[in-house]
Structures are given as C-alpha cells and as structure tokens.
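Annotators were shown the component list below and the corresponding predicted structure, then asked to write short factual statements about the assembly.
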Amino acid sequence: GENVEQHPSTLSVQEGDSAVIKCTYSDSASNYFPWYKQELGKGPQLIIDIRSNVGEKKDQRIAVTLNKTAKHFSLHITETQPEDSAVYFCAALGDGGNQFYFGTGTSLTVIP
Amino acid sequence: IAGITQAPTSQILAAGRRMTLRCTQDMRHNAMYWYRQDLGLGLRLIHYSNTAGTTGKGEVPDGYSVSRANTDDFPLTLASAVPSQTSVYFCASSVRTGNTGELFFGEGSRLTVL
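Structure shown to annotators:
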C-alpha cells in the first residue's frame, strides 16, 4: 500500500512569516493529494488539494506544490496568522482510489 | 446542516466489553469511512463503505466491524474492546470514493479502554 511521510512534526513561526510542511509518498500511481487542517477538539477540514496533472495550486495565502518525479508535495502558508495554528495533515489517494493514506501530522504554532 | 454526527463524544470502557460508535450523515454521500487517530501515527483507515450494502477493510481493520444498512448510517463495533483500541475515532464521508474530492469529518469520539 501507500506510505506517506510528513515533516516536521512540530513547527513554530512568528506571525507574518511563512510556514512550509513537506510530505513524501511511495505509490507512483497515487494521483490526488489533499491537505487537511485540524483545530483542537474538531475533525480535520480540507484546506487545499492538488491533482497529479498540475505542479502547483494556490488559494490566497495557501499553496501546494507537487513533484511527481520525486514523489513529494508541500504545503506553503504565507503571512501566517495566529488562527493558522492547528495540526495539518497531508494525504495521498492510494489503493486504486479506495482509501486515503495520511501523514502523521504537523503541529503548527504561530506566535503573535 | 449537521453534516456528520458521531456519538458518543467520549466513553470509558472496560476491556472485554462490546461497544458501538454511531455515525450518521445527512449529505446523502455514497462513501463513508472510519479512521482512528493516535499521537504520532496520524489518521489510519479502519473500514470504509463505497455505497450502502458494501464495506471494505482499511489499514487497521482487526478487532473492528462495520455495517452499512442504509446511506446515512455507518456504525463501528468493537466486539471485545482491548486497551490498544484507546483512541480518537473519526467518521467521515465523501460524495463517492476515488479521485473526487473532499472528506467531511465528524467531531470525533474519544474512547478509553481500561
């Protein structure tokens, strides 16, 4: 099956700085890569996703890049704000499209 | 709009007891999923259902069973709970399985097995 690795496990940045979270995957057949944000006591929520036919996608302060050759994808958050503090999960769609494999999560703290 | 409703929110359970976690969605999604979340391990899929009447095994299915009698409900049963099943359990749904987009998650059920 798919194996998704995520780094770093914790990240602290000053408000206004950028944050980058990186993930690698093992199954070259995976073709859809979402990112989820989980606030304390809540379920994860989709914030951005990318499909394998594009290399980059942007949505306001959030962007995701994908390198299919190297099998890695990254989440970039610019101009971070305290409300960006949360746990972020990357995921890859594997197993013939039946299940998502999640990374182990990154706890982001934005220091005001 | 409620989305995904899970019950109970939290539960403490003695080892060996049977427990059913309930999950109901009101979005008429075809696919539903159960994940467990453990510190340092992220979210791992236990079981999934592509549509009412069908179920499949995820990464960590042992010790768990599911049923999907209708579109809206997807209960998860622990037949004989063990301490290693202490976790936070999330139910999720999507329009369908595959490369079609968003998983919608419930707020989780925290289960402690003593």
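Statements collected:
1. Chain A has a mean pLDDT of 93.
2. Chain A has no helices and eleven strands.
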